[in-house]
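2024-03-11 09:14:02 INFO worker-7 job=invfold-0412 stage=load source=structure_tokens
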């Protein structure tokens, strides 16, 4: 077959595979198709003033590097723009949001297959790798959670960038930039592309490929420059807003053990599907004999060995191991943040683990066949069929598990119950017990449990409507004021506050009865103009009217 015929055949295969992937993904995620907005969906869609409208003013603000639209301590304008488009198209109808995520997930499985085929992996293994990614139970969170559109789309753009890098580096560069502007995790495409360039450097026409020469390294220099420029507003949004101090990490050994243990946890999830859960809660590793971090030592050694051997042999296996490492690095707790382990974080790690593992298995199998005589080779076919049967069984098992977990995303309470069941002393379990106590009017017990949940990493849990029965209880009011004080102190470290932060600051002052400070914060936010102005003016009017109703309130504060 000529090269064009090979490409046409591969294109037809990928088209058929993508159609199957869409149908299979829809079947697996069917139980979640009408699931509600959850958690961060409020930040990006429900309560976000910039995605609730689609105007030139809002879009311009999304892309302004140090603008007011940065959300959840990230600079991700393309995600905000996509969310705004979805909001315009679907409104409060959940079905559309979920279908978009599912289609992108199926696309990612197809792109992974295409990347594996480009690495000269046999078709059966490449399709198997794509199917494993498609049905993996750890991916349910990234697909069924509406605002994780950023994760799905950024991976699609990152995989597309690596795929296009060899033939059309200009298009690849545009995809890489778009991936960064969707979610910073797309930066993993840079070391993957570098490993790809290294593995194919020096190839000539005799091998059916043109010599790359210095061209890929020049393009990679442009990628690196784009990443550095992007990092300025992105890390400006993260620090200090998106980072936390973990007292246990003062001990460097504890910090390193925790990073190692987290890595082991993700590997277990990736290769077995075990350990998946909503709202995972694993504490710092205080013990020097913790099995998680001890197991990480030989595993890390294996990874370093495979990367070194692959790079030395200029094998594309290195592309995938390096991609997995790059996907893990930002969520490893090297820079601590709240809730360091989550199913969705595996989404960027999994393609690399799948690709590296399959390429290694294929290499071992080919070496074994080369060493066999004809009789042994004939018997090996039986082993091959058995391996295919086992692979299909794994796909079916993972698919059934994902379908089961997709049901959880049909109801927020099911998600919380899942977390409480798997982490009975975690923040979600404690929070649910606090809600139960509040429903019976037991303010003292509810507040004690709520304090514990907040210590474990809960954020603004006291605003849940379930606490209305005790909202006016003095014990609950003390807690609310304490938390308001903590918010005020923390925001004082942010430097210049954004409009929404000023609004939050005003709410904290209001909760403490400090009406004048609340008014000043809202007045400062209003002076900046923008699409939030009307809501901020309404909030300011409400604060002033409340203050006027409370006799002597101004004299107290």
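2024-03-11 09:14:09 INFO worker-7 stage=emit residues=557
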């Amino acid at each position: 077959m000529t090269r064009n015929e090979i490409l046409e055949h591969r294109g037809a295969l990928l088209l058929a595979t993508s159609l199957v992937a869409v149908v299979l993904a829809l079947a697996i995620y069917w139980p979640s198709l009408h699931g509600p907005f959850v958690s961060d969906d409020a930040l990006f869609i429900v309560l976000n003033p910039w995605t609730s409208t689609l105007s030139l003013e809002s879009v311009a603000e999304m892309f302004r590097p140090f603008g007011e639209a940065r959300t959840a301590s990230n600079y991700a304008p393309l995600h905000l723009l996509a969310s705004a488009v979805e909001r315009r198209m679907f409104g409060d109808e959940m079905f559309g949001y979920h279908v978009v995520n599912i289609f992108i997930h199926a696309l990612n499985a197809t792109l992974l297959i295409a990347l594996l085929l480009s690495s000269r992996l046999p078709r059966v293994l490449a399709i198997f790798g794509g199917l494993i990614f498609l049905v993996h139970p750890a991916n349910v969170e990234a697909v069924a959670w509406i605002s994780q559109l950023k994760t799905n789309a950024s991976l699609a753009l990152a995989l597309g960038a690596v795929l296009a890098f060899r033939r059309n580096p200009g298009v690849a560069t545009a995809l890489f930039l778009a991936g960064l502007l969707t979610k910073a995790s797309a930066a993993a495409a840079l070391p993957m592309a570098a490993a790809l360039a290294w593995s194919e450097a020096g190839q000539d026409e005799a091998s059916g490929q043109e010599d790359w020469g210095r061209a890929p390294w020049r393009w990679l220099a442009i990628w690196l420059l784009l990443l550095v420029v992007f990092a300025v507003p992105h890390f400006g949004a993260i620090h200090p807003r998106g980072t936390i101090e973990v007292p246990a990490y003062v001990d460097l050994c504890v910090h390193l053990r925790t990073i190692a243990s987290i890595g082991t946890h993700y590997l277990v999830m990736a290769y077995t599907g075990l350990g998946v859960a909503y709202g995972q809660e694993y504490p710092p590793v205080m013990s020097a004999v913790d099995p998680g971090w001890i197991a990480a030592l030989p595993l890390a050694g294996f990874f370093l060995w495979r990367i070194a051997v692959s790079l030395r042999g200029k094998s594309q296996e290195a592309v995938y191991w390096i991609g997995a490492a790059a996907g893990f690095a930002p969520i490893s707790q090297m820079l601590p943040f709240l809730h360091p382990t989550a199913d969705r974080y595996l989404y960027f790690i999994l393609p690399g683990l799948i690709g590296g593992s399959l390429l290694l298995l294929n290499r071992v199998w080919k070496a074994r066949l080369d060493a066999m005589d004809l009789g042994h080779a004939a018997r090996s076919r039986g082993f091959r069929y058995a391996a295919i049967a086992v692979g299909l069984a794994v796909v079916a098992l993972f698919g059934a598990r994902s379908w089961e977990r997709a049901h959880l995303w049909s109801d927020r309470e099911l998600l919380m119950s899942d977390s409480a069941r798997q982490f009975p002393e975690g923040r979600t379990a404690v929070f649910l017990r606090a809600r139960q106590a509040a429903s019976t009017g037991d303010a003292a017990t509810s507040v004690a449990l709520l304090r514990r949940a907040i210590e474990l990493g809960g954020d603004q849990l006291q605003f849940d409507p379930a606490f209305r029965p005790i909202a006016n209880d003095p014990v609950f009011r003390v807690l609310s004021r304490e938390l308001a004080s903590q918010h005020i102190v923390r925001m004082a470290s942010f430097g210049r506050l954004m409009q929404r932060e000023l609004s939050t600051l005003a709410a904290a002052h209001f909760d403490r009865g400090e009406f004048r400070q609340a008014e000043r914060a809202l007045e400062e936010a209003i002076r900046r103009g923008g699409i939030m102005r009307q809501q901020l003016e309404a909030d300011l009017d409400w604060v002033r009217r409340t203050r006027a109703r409370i006799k002597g309130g101004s004299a107290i504060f």
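2024-03-11 09:14:09 INFO worker-7 stage=report msg="The two ends are 83 Å apart (CA to CA)."
2024-03-11 09:14:10 INFO worker-7 job finished
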